[in-house]
Amino acid sequence: MSLAMNKEELSQYLTQVFPQVHKDFVIMELTNDTITMRLVVEDRHLRPGGTVSGPSMFGLADVCVYSMVLARKGRQSLAVTTSSSMDFLRKPAGGADMIAKCRLLKLGRTLAVGDVLMYSEGHDAPVARASLTYSLPPEGSAAAAFG
Amino acid sequence: MSLAMNKEELSQYLTQVFPQVHKDFVIMELTNDTITMRLVVEDRHLRPGGTVSGPSMFGLADVCVYSMVLARKGRQSLAVTTSSSMDFLRKPAGGADMIAKCRLLKLGRTLAVGDVLMYSEGHDAPVARASLTYSLPPEGSAAAAFG
Amino acid sequence: MSLAMNKEELSQYLTQVFPQVHKDFVIMELTNDTITMRLVVEDRHLRPGGTVSGPSMFGLADVCVYSMVLARKGRQSLAVTTSSSMDFLRKPAGGADMIAKCRLLKLGRTLAVGDVLMYSEGHDAPVARASLTYSLPPEGSAAAAFG
Amino acid sequence: MSLAMNKEELSQYLTQVFPQVHKDFVIMELTNDTITMRLVVEDRHLRPGGTVSGPSMFGLADVCVYSMVLARKGRQSLAVTTSSSMDFLRKPAGGADMIAKCRLLKLGRTLAVGDVLMYSEGHDAPVARASLTYSLPPEGSAAAAFG
How many CA within 13 A on the CB side of residue A96? Predict the structure, then answer.
């Protein structure tokens, strides 16, 4: 199975559907079953002390797997997040963007699963790990509607 | 074991340590091992369609368990989130604040665990479930430093 | 919505479908959205040191939520586990059965979610926490088939 | 940092500490931060229908990450599992052993984290994904004692 959207089409689509946040996220690389995204870190993503906040990392992981599913299923897909788990491994480096590398582990008829490793740019050891499950709308229906 | 801070002391402390976000969160009730908090939903918490975003719910659950640990351990506590899991159960109601009810399941020497149910105010069925683990700094040390 | 099977019908059904393990599990109480089950602890459930093993606790939580879903959906239901998370909170007491208390948090068209607290019998503090998600087969189909 | 035990030393040690189950698990490969293990599937690992049970997969993932931590920390290490998450992706193939591939994501002073992909031998698509956190005993103490 191949991509329904390439990197440029996917970027353009995210700009349309996430007008508030699309500037935070940049697609760096897209293959059939992996995607790499950058979180352009701004003040609003930081906690006191200057490190990237937990909710910002959650948001990055969520957008990353969601984008991977979209790239395969196409823009009519209305996937909704149903489960997630995250492990926070190290303190993010100050002043560095976050790079997220996602693998698509399953793309079924009704469920999709991906996992993500997140890094402070320029550092080798991962800052956080996440896995997320999405419910996919049945063919022809309007939305996944939380299963 | 009893509370190291009561509701008013805890509210005041959160105002100091989270100057950017403290207005989003209101402590509604605090007991020895439960806390109930409100997320005052603003536009920045919403996704297209008007529902509360995943990162906002993650943030609410995180602040909720963190505050519960603080209330017991006192303000010198520098707990850091190490693991989390969340299940998204239903679409949040539009135009409603989110209410989070946390139970403290464990408060050990080096780890604390709490779980949280989140509701759209005025609705009976939970919108999301979360559990979070915190690493606690050893007595006398400066910080938990991600274990 | 009410129960499709009562406690006796559910017990009998589990005996049929899990001939190898049904003696390990006893349903103690069943309501519309909660179930309490006992793991009758035998040598094969123990790790060196005499405490209940992680896989045994996972199995207990899994059977518990699965049974709750069955009780509501009826015996034609072919739910399969898709996601789980567990926190191990305390060392189980030696020589004690494990009691699991499950709440059904969601019973949707395609997904069901429950959470579980597990206790060593006679002790107040929970030994472990779990949450599990099940994929439900579409009406009329043979099985959920892992989404 | 390098291995405290090589593959043969680790195998021998597991035989000593897990007399009941060591025959189920075979270490296939060990590097500084990865381990590959085989679950030799027997009748007792199966559910009705002939597929490997959830508790058996949980046990495989747990032994896998635990062994990786042991290989690095040495045999005095008394790590205990504190958190886990699993996603069940596909039905395991009948009559095939399970192969688990673990990456060590963090080996800190008090916490270790690894993730695992599990496959039915001879098949490319993963059957399950897991991540596990271990609490490590402080230097010189007897045990991690669940944090």
Answer: 15
What angle is formed at CA A10 by the lines to CA A4 and CA A14, rounded to 5 degrees? 135
Q: At D74, phi and psi to the nearest 5?
A: 90, 170
Report the mean per-residue pLDDT for chain A. Answer: 91
Burial class (CB in 10 A: 0-12, 13-18, 19+), D95: exposed
Contact criterion met (CB < 8 Å) for A48 and B91: no
DSSP string, B15-66: HHH-TTTGGGEEEEEE-SSEEEEEE---GGGBPTTSPBPHHHHHHHHHHHHH
**Token digits of residue A100:** 């997220």
Could you give the dihedral angle defined by the CA atoms of residues B54, B55, B60 and B66, in that order, rounded to the nearest 10 degrees? 130
D residues 85-124 closer than 8 Å to A (CB): 85, 87, 89-90, 105-106, 113, 115, 117
Identify which of A44, A27, A24 has the alpha carbon closest to the alpha carbon of residue A36.
Answer: A27
Q: How far is C146 from chain D (nearest CA, A)?
A: 6
pLDDT in tens, B1-33: 699 999 999 999 999 888 777 789 999 999 999
C49 in the Ramachandran plot: left (φ > 0), alpha (ψ -120 to 50) or beta?
A: left
Which element (helix H / strand E) includes C119?
A: strand C111-120
Rounded to whole angstroms, the Cα distance separating C123 from B141 reads 33
Q: Looking at this predicted complex, what is its ipTM?
A: 0.92
Q: What is the largest CA-CA distance in chain C?
A: 48
- Contacts of residue C14, defined as CB under 8 A and 6 or more positions apart, other chains included, come to C22, C25, C27, C63, C67, C70
* Distance from C-alpha of C132 to C-alpha of C116, rounded to nearest angstrom: 8
Given this model, what pLDDT does residue D77 score? 75
Question: Cβ distance A67 to A4 under 8 Å?
Answer: no
D122 φ, ψ (degrees, to nearest 5): 90, 0
Residue C18: the pLDDT is 80
Is A33 an interface residue toward D (CB < 8 Å)? no
Q: Does A81 touch chain D (CB under 8 A)?
A: no
- % of chain C at pLDDT higher than 90: 75
- Residue C105 contacts residue B87 (beta carbons within 8 Å): yes
| Sheet arrangement for strand D98-107 | C25-30, C34-39, C98-107, C111-120, C128-135, C80-88, D80-88, D128-135, D111-120, D98-107, D34-39, D25-30
Euclidean distance between CA atoms A88 and B73, whole angstroms? 21
- Tens digit of each residue's pLDDT (9 = 90 or more) over B85-144: 999 999 999 889 999 999 999 999 999 999 999 999 999 999 999 999 999 977 655 555
Nearest Cα to Cα of residue C132 among C73, C84, C92, C90 = C84
- Show the tokens assigned to A136: 């996919």
